[in-house]
Amino acid sequence: RDQGTAIVFITHKLREVKEAADKITIIRRGAVVGTASPSASQEELASLMVGRPVSLEVNKSAPKLGDVMLKVEHLNVHDHTGRALVKDISFELRAGEVLAVAGVQGNGQSELAEAVVGLQEHVDGRITLDGQEIHTGKVREALHAGIAFVPESREEDGLISSFSIEENLILDLHDLPPFAKGPVISQSAVAENASKRVVEFDIRAQSPKDPASSLSGGNKQKVVLARELSRPVKLVVASQPTRGLDVGSIEFVHERIIAERDSGRGVLLFSTELDEVVALADRIAVMYRGEIISIVPATTSREELGLLMAGIKK
Mapped to the 3 state alphabet, what secondary structure does 30-77 carry? Predict the structure, then answer.
C-alpha cells in the first residue's frame, strides 16, 4: 500500500480488518450492506455482517470439574515411513472442562485429534475414555464408546455432500434403533430426527431432503454439530470448529461448545485461532513439533502463548 498499490483485502477476521484496512465495506448475502471506518468496534462490524446484534464475548462460568474423562499416556503417532508426528504425549481431561490444544498449524494437532477418535493406525501408547481403553484404528468403537468428533474439514470428513441433510444427520447412527429396523432404514424416523435437529441447531435449508452440498459453510458445520452432539457422548473432540465461518456462525458454535462443557462432557478443542483458544479454554496445551511443551491456565497472556507456540519457554 505504501508503494502505491491498491489492495482489496477479503477476510472475516475482525481483528485483521481493523488493523489493516483504511476503508471497510461489508457484504452480506451477495450485496453491500454498509461501510465503516477502522475505528468502528468489532461489535458494530459483526452486526453489519450478520444483520443482527452479535456477542463477541464468550459467556461462561467457572468449570464444575468432574472425574478424569480422557487419559492419554505416552502417545506416539507415526506416518507410513515411521517418521514421528506426535511424540510421547501424556495428559488428562476432566468432565466439565475445555482443554484447548494450541499451536501453529502442522505441529501434530491434526494427528493427535485423529488418534483420539481412532482414525490413526500407526499409534503406540494408551488412550482411555472414562476408564475404557480406546483402540487405535477403530473409529466405530470410539464413536460407540461416547466420542463426538467435529473434524477439521466438514466437506471432506464431516459430510457426504451428495447425501441429503437428513441422511447426514444419522451417518454414525444409521445402523442403530430407531433408524435401523433390521437391514432396513426407517425413513420416517430419519425424517423426524431431521425436523428436530433443523430447529434445535437453526440449520437454514429449503428442505432436509436437499443435498448437504446446497448448504452454506456455517450451516454445513451446524449439521455436523447436530449429528455429533445429539447422541449420548462423554467427550467432544472439536478440530478447527469455526474455520471459514462468519461471525454469526462462530457465535453459535462457541455457545454450543460451552453448553457441552457445562452439561458435564469433556471437550478437547483444537484451534489455531488464539482468540478462540483464550475465550473457550479452561486450560491450554501448547504443541510444538509434535510435543506438548506446556499446559498452562487460560489466563496465560497472549504474549506467553505466542512464545510457547514458537517453541520458546520462559
Answer: CEEEEEECCCCCHHHHHHHHHCCCCCCCCCCCCCCCCCEEEEEEEEEE
Helix (H, G, I), strand (E, B) or coil at 5: coil
Pairing of strands 147-150, 132-133: unpaired
The alpha helices in 3-120, defined as continuous H runs, are 14-20, 42-50, 109-116
Are the beta carbons of 205 and 219 closer than 8 angstroms? yes
> How high is the pLDDT of residue 57?
80
Condensed to tens digits (0 to 9), the pLDDT of residues 17-41 reads: 999 999 999 998 789 999 999 999 9
Using an 8 Å Cβ cutoff, are 283 and 294 in contact? no
Backbone angles phi, psi at 292, to 5 degrees: -85, 110
Q: Residue 22 and residue 45: Cα distance in Å, rounded? A: 14
Integer Rg of the chain from CA: 21
- DSSP assignment letter at 134: P
Query: How does the average pLDDT of the chain come out, rounded?
Result: 92
Q: Rounded to whole angstroms, how far apart are CA atoms 191 and 205?
A: 14
The ranges of the chain with pLDDT < 50 are none
Which has the closest alpha carbon to 131: 213, 52, 214, 67? 67
- Kindly report the pTM of this predicted structure: 0.87
- d(CA 291, CA 285) in angstroms, rounded, equals 10
Q: What are the backbone angles phi and psi of residue 74, rounded to the nearest 5°? A: 50, 50
Please say whether the dihedral angle defined by the alpha carbons of residues 117, 267, 247 and 215, taken in this order, is positive or negative. Answer: positive
